[in-house]
Amino acid sequence: MAKPQPATRIRTCRSCGTKYEYPLKTDPDATRHHCADCAAVPAHLRKVSERLLLRIQKLELELARLKPKTDFTRESGE
Known about the structure:
Layout: E1 9-12, E2 19-22, H1 36-39, H2 43-77
Antiparallel strand pairs: 1-2
């Protein structure tokens, strides 16, 4: 008897940030943490890409937090 497949879930790739369905029957290269495209990349390059993606995400969050403060100071200064 075949082992039942776990429910398909939407995952986010740790290296490039794209959303993908896991597990895929048509694309067995995808893993829990990486899409099929990034799974084909050598591990040392994936690691660098993961760190860069995390840094970009942190900078975007920081910018989003600072932006409302900047808008508020402009309105009060006018």
